[in-house]
Amino acid sequence: MTERELLIKGLEQICPKVYPQTVDNFLKFSDMLLEKNKVMNLTAVTEPMEVISRHFLDCAMIAPDIISEEKVIDIGTGAGFPGLPLAILCEDTQFVLIDALRKRIDFLNEVISELGLKNVTAIHARAEELKERQSFSAAVSRAVADLSVLSELTLPLVKVGGKFIAMKAQDCKDEVSKATKAIEILGGTKPVIKTYTVVQSDIVRAKVEIQKIKDTPSKYPRRFAKISASPPVSYTHLTLPTT
């Protein structure tokens, strides 16, 4: 099976219709990723077929969850995951990809320009410094940080009524459990873990879904150094309201 055949078979199991231009864009992205990876550490995955399964099809698995959203932010996008594959698939949704490393953003802007994508912007920024508070209908993130830390960086950016989807390893139950109180403080619901098998593979992963149901207190997010030193899971001084 070729890369193109694997990509088409996989995407057909996820999306209602797969267009040739969509497939071409993914393959161009793969070529650019692997070429740049020779001089810059973007991914540990170096085989083209594994790029398709471990990166592209994995990210595509959450496309049905965000395809109807208006504006989505990808926190700590790294080499563009999951935001860039989602932007390729969800043309009517606007995406903002942010990362703290300028070189990664420069690479992503090269890809965006080469593919002619009009629905995605890559920005060099730290999540806790963004001014677009509660302006995104959804947020996504993949393998960035512990969920308690990640939630403080992400939930302040999501509108009430919006959602946050964190892509995690299959065995994330303890991590999610420890983050539950912090998520509630930050305005989210109790997180829901949904495991899935990536199409055309035996890779099992998990997505953690959090709904934003109330405003995040204005003092969050804090500076990243403080979040890391004292993550939300350690909020022993805070007491949740009781009824």
Topology:
Layout (H helix, E strand, L loop, with lengths): L2 H10 L7 H17 L11 H13 L2 H4 L4 E5 L7 H7 L4 E6 L2 H14 L4 E5 L11 E7 L4 H8 L3 E12 L3 H13 L6 E6 L6 E8 L12 H6 L14
Parallel strand pairs: 1-2, 1-4, 2-3, 4-5
Antiparallel strand pairs: 5-7, 6-7
Helix pairs in contact: 1-2, 1-3, 2-3, 2-6, 7-8
Task: Report on the architecture of this protein.
By secondary structure, the chain is an alpha/beta fold. It is 38% helix and 20% strand. It is built from 9 helices and 7 strands. The chain has helices at 3-12, 20-36, 48-60, 63-66, 83-89, 102-115, 147-154, 173-185, 224-229, and strands spanning 71-75, 94-99, 120-124, 136-142, 158-169, 192-197, 204-211. A 7-stranded mixed β-sheet has the order 3-2-1-4-5-7-6, sandwiched between helices. Helix 5 links the parallel strand 1 and strand 2. Helix 1 crosses helix 2 (20-36), helix 2 (20-36) packs across helix 3 (48-60) and helix 2 (20-36) runs antiparallel to helix 6. The longest helix is centred in the first third of the chain and has 17 residues, at 20-36. The model is unreliable at 234-243 (pLDDT under 50).
Key words describing this protein structure:
7-stranded mixed sheet; 20% strand; globular; alpha/beta; 7 strands; 9 helices; 243 residues; disordered C terminus
